[in-house]
Amino acid sequence: MKPFLAHMNPQQQQAILANGGPILVVAGPGSGKTRVLTSRIAYLIAELGVHPYHIMAVTFTNKAAREMESRLINMLGKLPPGLTLGTFHATCARLLRRESDNLPFKSDFVIYDQEDQIELLKLAIGDLNLDPKRYKPTWAQHAISNAKNALILPDNYPVETYRDEALRRIYQRYQELLLINNALDFDDLILWTVFLLENNPEIRQRYASRFEHILVDEFQDTNVAQYLLLRYLASHHRNLFAVGDADQAIYRWRGADYRNVLRFQEDFPDAQIIPLEENYRSTQAILDVAMAVISHSPGRIPKNLFTQKGQGHKVTFFEAYNNHREVEYIADTILSLKRELGLQWGDFAVMYRTNAQSRLLEEAFLRAAIPYKLVGAQRFYGRREVKDMIAYLRLVRNPDDELSLTRVIATPPRGIGEKTFLALRTLALQKDLSPGAYLLEIGKNPNALPAEAFPERGRASLLTFSAMLHQWVSMGSSFPPLAIMDRILEDIGYRSYIDDGSEEGQDRWENVMELRRLAAEFPEPGLDAFLEQVALVSDQDTLEGGANAVTLLTLHAAKGLEFPVVFISGLNDGLLPHSRSFDDPEAMWEECRLLYVGITRAKERLFLTCSQNRSAYGYEEPIPPSRFLDYIPYHLLDEVQPRRISSRHSSKGYNLLEEVARKRESPNPPAERRYQAGMRVQHPIWGEGMVLNSVLQDGDEIVDVYFAGLGLKRLLASMAHLEIKV
DNA sequence: ATGGACAATGTTTTT
DNA sequence: CATTGTCCAT
User: Fold this and answer.
1) Whose CA is closest to A616, among A349, A311, A357?
2) Tens digit of pLDDT for each residue in A652-702?
3) Residue in A218, A247, A388, A441 annotated catalytic
4) Residue A573 in contact with residue A611, Cβ under 8 Å?
5) Please, what is the angle between helix A114-127 and helix A402-410, to 10°?
6) CB of A541 nearer than 7 A to strand B
7) What is the Cα Rg of chain A in Å?
8) Is A248 labeled as catalytic in the residue annotation?
9) Active-site residue identified among A2, A13, A14, A34
10) pTM for the complete prediction?
């Protein structure tokens, strides 16, 4: 047997060996999709003799890309030279730099992250004399990002209200500012690539014929722009191999559109669909709970997940009096499980909906002396001191970057305030220069600064700064990033600026040193590679496994990971589902999928916890249990403390516990159908529908209901809270 | 130009 | 409650 087929089940083999053409691999959680993806690449290269140059594999995270890299090295002995393997954004950035002759920006553009975007938007809003309180930069950022993900430019931004028009102008001005700064934001990387391919048939043809095989990971997370990008790239050979799972689509709010899975099937009617249904991760008990939760999600393709790991331990449910008791329970349980089962700290993970929930857990863990690591809460690259240093390096690389310039000038304060800077800016614009370019000019030749234009103090500050800037820039292309960084650190006395002796100050300096270590990994002269890396790498990628500590992380951050023991905390209405999604059914189902993702991270043991009261913002308030708990049949759970009957359910005249109690008394309730074809029924979420069919099974009734606009749903009568309409 | 006092606000965040 | 941003006085 070929090495890349060893230990593969028939479905996996089918996917790996599939002939060309469009292929959609529907990969359930824990079904070995990364193995399939990498094995297929190995197969294409080693068996079919496809040159790696003709293969492109795209992922969403650097971590996923690196994971594939190392597996390929394992299988093939080395990374195939010429292979295109990377994130959407990194791949597009590379392509855009190569093709910048056909684009309105220079090949050495900088990449703005979300924080930079907000800063730039503040400028744009200011330029238009709009009230930043009415037009919040964060709002605008969201709207513009959505527009870009849907390939909408300012010119065709839909305007229905005055507000839309204002937003459209902000968007327009924002794009202008980006070009002036020779910068692209994250969304631009995809957007411009799509436009490049769309508008230049000959470039499109070049890439489309180059990439004989295109493989995509986490296909359900693609947005419209990314989907079109793939379609263009695959337009010649049509060998698009997409792996995804709509049940794990949790990034809708970021523009991801799992309906791309449907579009794919429309655009490629001959697409082969290969399901991967064997789960290698979780016990049956965990899988049962996962299936119970996700089966309520409307419009999904039913999957038949199974595992050979055996039944395993029942999923534990604990309802605490309040969230303090809840975290104590989690800490206590971790301690006793570790002792009883001989587990490592690293075997445990605690998940929650919002980062704010981690604080109480941290406190409880500190008290219990449990070592923990927090994923992603305060981003390394988002740290002020790190962003400061990156601004310096970016400025050296691209002096036109005014955003970085203003940041650099203000940190540390060097006597150049708003007034002085504005005067400088005006002078620069008169000379048709960016302020940064003008400062460089002055650095070379101090006489370029008109003596009469500034008061003595401001003038002196400007001269000092421009001289430093000039020095740094002249180092730019001939020294490695580390040398430039050290020089800057020394010139500006950065350590004494941020390290005030406090613990926080020391932390900050530590972070600067960490960045310095990263810079040291780029020994070549030129900042380009380092800055690109820094711009397109996130902290999720820096999450090192192995560290012997309990992992605390949001449900979002948990995707793609697995742990022997998982706690999902805060299963309360308002947290999960989050209150912000109450009025939007789509968002609501995304919350449900989020829970599903969390559940399916667990290998051996799963604990679901909630609390009856929650203190937040200073006050303790009652908080209802998550409505998703109703989706889990009682017999699948092991309750540590009997759950109190919540008024929410009984008020509806229907109660899960009563139902369960009734079932317990008579394991086989009267075999009688309540629903019949033709009946109209009311569902709490989907509204009114018509019963098409109903059958009895295991003492429960399985009802097929057609809902207008949603289609046919298969429901469990005991779970669905259906009301018969007369 | 800079720091201190007050008000506003409160999801998730692959790149 | 705790963090973040804005305004104002020095």
Assistant:
1) A357
2) 333 333 333 333 333 344 356 788 777 888 876 677 777 877 777 656 677
3) A218
4) no
5) 100
6) yes
7) 29
8) yes
9) A34
10) 0.80
